[in-house]
Structures are given as C-alpha cells and as structure tokens.
Amino acid sequence: MMLEVFKYNFMQNALAASILASIVCGIVGVIIVEKKLVMMSGGIAHTSYGGVGLGYYLGFEPILGALIFSTCAALGIGYVKRKGTTRSDVLIGMFWSLGMALGILFIALMPGYPPDLSSYLFGNILSVTRIDIMFMALLTMLVVLIVVALFNYWQSYMFDEEFAAIMGIRTAFLEYLLFVLIALSVVVLIRVVGIILVLALFTAPPAIATMLSQNLKSRMLYSILFGSIFCMTGLGLSYIVNIASGAAIVIIAVMTYLLVYAVQGYLSNRQIVMRGCELRGQQEQ
Amino acid sequence: MSVLHIKDLSVYYANTRALVGVNLDIEEGEYLGIIGPNGGGKSTLLKAILGLVSPTTGEIKIYGKSPGHTGTRLGYVPQLVSLDKSFPLTVEQVVLQGRLRPQLTLFHRYRAEDRERVKEVLKQVGIYKLRERMLSELSGGEFQKMLIARALAVNPKMLLLDEPTASVDAEARKQIYQLLQELNKTMTIILVTHDLMAVSSHVRTLACMNGRLVYHGGPQINEGVIGELYGCPIDLIAHGVPHRVLANVAEVKQDDARSI
C-alpha cells in the first residue's frame, strides 16, 4: 500500500531530494560540527532568505537568489573573520537578521498579492520539481567532488589549521572554499527542510555519528545514512499527516538524537556501575 | 651566518603592544629557551617567526627567507591545549599530516616514502606501538610526543616548541627533554617554556621576554634580570631547589622561603 505512492512523480522527486540532501548534510555537517561552524552555517542559511525575496521581487527563480545571497554571505563573513577586527559571532548575528529583513522588504515591495513563502522557510519536499532535482544534484556533485578531491587537506585543516598554514598550505583558500561549500549545501537543503530548519539536518546526523564512530570517513557515511532515514521517515509522516516536511524531518531527527544520547548514557553508566561492582568484589576477595 | 635574524621587531594587536624592539640572532645548532611571564610576548615572538602574525615594524629572516615562506625548514609543535583531543584521527593519520604536499593537490595520496618517514619518526619519539590509537585514547605525554613526531615528519632544520611539557607527567617530561637533547645534535631548537628547571639544565642559551627582550645569553641569569622579568623573585624560590638559573642567589632565597 505504502509502496504505491512511489508511482507518483512527486513522490519519486521527493525521494531523490531526500537522498541528495542527506549526502550533503552528512559530509558537510560533519565538517561543520568538528570545526564548530554551526552558528556560521545558521547565519549563511538565514541570509539566503534575502535572495529568495529578491528573486520574487525581480521575477527570477528564488532558489537562484538564495544561492547568490548565501554565497555572498559566506565570502563576506569569511573576509571579515580573516581580517580579525570584528568578532565573527557578532557579524554572523547581523548577517542572519539582515538577510531575513531584506527578504521581508523585497516581498513587501512586490506589487500584488504576496506569495506563500512557507515552503522556503519550512521546506516542502513534496513540491520539489524535476528541475529542482537536477539543480540539487549538480550542487551535491560539486560539494562531494570538492570534499573528496581535497580530503587529506580538509583533515589537516580541521585538526590543526595553524600547522597546515606553517607548512605552506593555503588555509585561507580552504576556509573560503569551506564557507562556499556550506552556502551550496544550504541551498540544497532549503527545498527539503527550509531555511529555518537547515541547522537540524547539519547537526543531528553528525552528532549521532559522533557517538557511534571514531573515524572521520565513517562518521560521514553514518551521517548520510541517518540523514536519509530521517528524510524518508519525515517524508512519509508529512504525506500521511499533511504537515510541512521540514518540521516532520527535524522532529524525527532531534528525537532520534535524544534517544541515542539517553541510551548511550544509560549504557555507559551501567558499565561504570558494573566496573565498580567488579572492583569491589576483587577488593573483598 | 645566523639562521634566525630578528631586527627591531615590534608587534601590536590593534592598539595593544605585545612586543617591542626585539633584536635576536640565532646560530645554526642553537638550543634556545624562551622564558617570561604570561603576556610577556613569548608566544607572539614564536608566532611572528612562524608567520602567523605579521610584524608591525622590523624584520625577521629565517634561513634568509621571510616568515610564511620558509617551506619545510620549520617544524612547529603547538601547545596541547590549542587542539581538540577527541578529534577522530589515529596517531599515524596525524603524523602523516606532516608529509602533506603544501601545494594543494587534487586526490592527494600519501606515498610509501611518506609512510616510511612516519614510521621512522614514531620510533624516534617512542610511540610507534601506539600508531593505530585514536587521539582520544592518548595521555598528555603521548599526545605531545605525537605532535613532536608530526613536526619531525616535515624534515625541518629548526624545531619550535610552545610549552611542550605543560600538561605531561614527570616521566614523559624527562623523556621529552632527552629527545630534544638528542634532536639538537642535528637541528636548531627554540623552546618556549614556563619550566625554569628545564631551562637551566638543558638549553644552551636563554631569552627572557617581558614585552621586550630583557636578557639574551647563557643560561645563568642574575636576580636583576628575574626582577625585570617577573617584577619580583617569588616565582623562582617556589621551586625550593638550587639550580643553575639562580646559581648565585638560590641559597639565600631558600632561607628566605623557610622564614616565610
């Protein structure tokens, strides 16, 4: 019964979108979490709302506007951070709000009835079109290619940026590239979970993977796996209950994280208690 | 010819003065200890040499090159606290990073000779059997030795270390100093440290920093220098053991300490 719905085009597109989003959030999410760039990613994501608004206002594809705005935000934040005169979290806060404000401004300037923006804010995976999928696939391939091709460099940059710089590796270039990768990933994720909820897909799968694996590559693979599971279950839930796909996916992702966290905490506590009992037993003997 | 030449170096962060008017020349094969109070500019000096901060005025030449253009001549061992101790890598993967080709190379793979060099340096620092361990499973001393191995993997001519014994136990500390002594036979070493005991018994020359270079010379220094460095001699008598740093004043100071 459930499988029948996959005959529909919109369902096939939704499935493809889920997998693409999971690949991107798995790979880039692990880097973001390890490099402590979660807030930076939030800033880049929210700035893209300005681009969506501009797209509607000037009459071009809003997702293209999002791509332009998020890339500019990535480069702008990266530049000021590198100059080191302003604290980057302060700047991120301003970009975050400015992007949203510009979006609201552009939509307000639009003549006629305002469009429904909730699919950009909260995601609507069931409305993804074939063209969206091609666009997402292109960006995903680009992100995967850049991460894989420079993997040893990313590893070194993530662990100890200073050491890499001293060796003569162009870490400034890597940093800008990483910020642009985040911007591209945000755009891939917008159609699936929306701007507001992007952070959950960047953080929940890598956070679960961190608890399960001690290896960078397998953490990425685990993240992709968990991301896919969350997206597909969320997709099912949003189809059945008719709620925004983004909300469904995020609730499932964060709930799963909390569950894994609780189970792990319980298991390691039990281990400690058991070790304690063993030690006491030995002492008594 | 000196391998490190620093002339009239000043470094300001925004409007804060970190270093002013430093002149320093280091010869090949030197073993220099840099001491001084917190905020005295020790790390800033090291970072300026490494090209991580740029001089406000003055110039630095390392083997005739400007900082940041020294290629593989410098090996750097950072402070332990600056790194993520639970980062998902093995010891071998970290040390291999010292063999990474500086020119960004697509689909870069480490070669057999890179792995051979890593094996060599891991044996040299004495943690070869830990090569498969994850970073989260290492003690402070093992982690520090791994960082030294990574710096050595570069094949540097000069080794720069920032507080290499700050968070390691006494045994590992001894091993690290022995290793540095051994390494000094083939390379120049610059060591930033709080460990005054080590400075007195291991290094060949000493630089004392307190916003400027207060003293540069042999490892025996007098009370006047200590006074300029720390404002008061209290830091040194805390050790309670007479050693070369305070050879002339140690006994007197010990008596003072007892009477307190």
Task: Give me the secondary-structure topology.
The complex is a heterodimer of chains A (285) and B (260).
Chain A: H1 9-34, H2 38-58, H3 62-83, H4 88-109, H5 118-122, H6 130-149, H7 151-159, H8 161-167, H9 171-193, H10 198-212, H11 216-241, H12 245-284
Helix pairs in contact in A: 1-6, 1-9, 1-10, 1-11, 2-3, 2-4, 2-9, 2-10, 3-4, 3-9, 6-9, 7-8, 10-11, 10-12, 11-12
Chain B: E1 2-13, E2 16-27, E3 31-35, H1 42-50, E4 57-62, E5 74-77, H2 91-96, H3 112-125, H4 140-153, E6 158-162, H5 170-183, E7 188-192, H6 196-202, E8 205-209, E9 213-217, H7 223-230, H8 234-237, H9 250-259
Parallel strand pairs in B: 3-7, 3-8, 5-6, 6-7
Antiparallel strand pairs in B: 1-2, 1-4, 8-9
- Helix percent of chain B reads 25-40%
> What is the C-alpha radius of gyration of chain B, as a whole number of Å?
19 Å
Helical proportion of chain A, percent range: over 70%
CATH class of chain A: Mainly Alpha
Give the structure's gist in a few sentences.
The complex is a heterodimer of chains A (about 280) and B (about 260). Chain A is built from 12 helices and no strands.
Structure description:
Chain A is an all-alpha fold. Chain A has one domain: ABC transporter involved in vitamin B12 uptake, BtuC (Orthogonal Bundle), CATH 1.10.3470.10. Chain A has helices at residues 9-34, 38-58, 62-83, 88-109, 118-122, 130-149, 151-159, 161-167, 171-193, 198-212, 216-241, 245-284. In chain A, helix 2 (38-58) runs parallel beside helix 4 (88-109) and helix 2 packs antiparallel against helix 10. The termini of chain A are far apart. The model of chain A has no long low-confidence stretch (mean pLDDT 90). Chain B has nine helices and nine strands. In chain B, the strands form two sheets. In chain B, strands 5-6-7-3-8-9 form a six-stranded mixed sheet, with helices on both faces. A three-stranded antiparallel sheet of chain B has the order 2-1-4, covered by helices on one side. Chain B starts with a strand and ends with a helix. Chains A and B meet through helix 7 and helix 8 of A and loops of B.
